[in-house]
Amino acid sequence: MSIKQWPVTEQPREKLINQGAHSLSDAELLAIFLRTGVKGKSAVDLGRDMVRHFGDIRGVMRANISELCVIPGLGETKYVQLQAALEMGRRYLAVEIQRGDILDSPQATREYLCLKLGHLSYEVFACLFLDNQHQIIRFEEMFRGTIDGANVYPRDIVKRVLELNAKAVIFAHNHPSGIAEPSQADRALTERLQRALDLLEIRVLDHFIIGDGQPVSFAELGLL
Questions:
Q1: Pair 37, 112 in one domain
Q2: Which of 97, 178, 171, 68 is nearest to 129 (CA)?
Q3: Which of 16, 41, 43, 66 is 20 to 30 A away from residue 141, measured at CA?
Q4: What's the confidence (pLDDT) of residue 6?
Q5: What does the pLDDT look like over 3-39, one tens digit per residue?
Q6: How many domains does the chain have?
Q7: 44 closest CA partner among 34, 58, 55, 56
């Protein structure tokens, strides 16, 4: 059955308008993005196929072009559109957290870091450099590694802090495995970085680990 034949209140587009985007399932959101289905399947059916194939919405967003095109009805155009939508989300959240004190928008900060690092298959250690009002000066990927880890050098972070005249930092790195629990190595590294920056009177506000689900905050765990 075509989506147009569904009750109006159940059609994803009308549901979004009347109830808000949060009321839609992952498949329904994808259906709005896809706009049309394929022979024998509605756009919602196709959205369900995507979620089923990749495990969840995160898996869909992480798929590369060859992986996405395995799904019948998807091709290069849909991949390009999906990447554009992701980048718009990243830029929106970047503007959102740059408008004021970063501590006033913790959820936007988490969502931004998830969009920047959550889709990567290799490990990245990144920094949010902040001024004395806790507004963002710059976000930078400082170190890249493999799925097994990244080499992080405190001297390089100290050098960049001085170059940008930053007064505070937030660290973030991803766990491509999806398990966002801080390892002993993560804790030891954070302590080393904190000691190095303490000498310059630079505050370490937090260290987020990005995996599946909500990022884990060192500050909330009492590890800072």
A1: no
A2: 171
A3: 66
A4: 64
A5: 565 655 568 888 888 888 888 889 888 888 888 777 7
A6: 2
A7: 34
Q: Are residues 68 and 106 in the same domain?
A: no
In angstroms, the first-to-last Cα distance of the chain is 55
Structure tokens at 132: 């004395």
Does 94 fall in a domain? no
Q: Are residues 116 and 155 in the same domain?
A: yes
33 assigned to some structural domain: yes
Q: Which of 113, 125, 117, 103 lies closest to 192, judged by CA?
A: 125
* CB contact at 8 A, 173 and 218: no
pTM of this structure? 0.70
Q: Kindly state whether residues 110 and 20 are assigned to the same domain.
A: no
Helices (H) and strands (E) in the chain, counts: 9, 5
Alpha carbons 184 and 62: distance in angstroms, whole number: 28
86 domain residue, yes or no: no
Give the DSSP H or E segment for 196. helix 184-198
185, containing H or E segment: helix 184-198
What are 11-20's pLDDT values in tens digits? 888 888 888 8
Please check whether residues 107 and 186 belong to one and the same domain: yes
Largest CA distance in the chain: 67
* 169 phi and psi angles, rounded to 5 deg: -140, 155
In 131-191, which ranges are E strands?
Answer: 136-144, 168-174
- H-type helices in 55-173, by residue range? 57-62, 65-68, 76-98, 106-117, 154-164
Q: Are 34 and 3 in contact (CB under 8 A)?
A: no
Q: Residue 10: which domain range?
A: 3-74
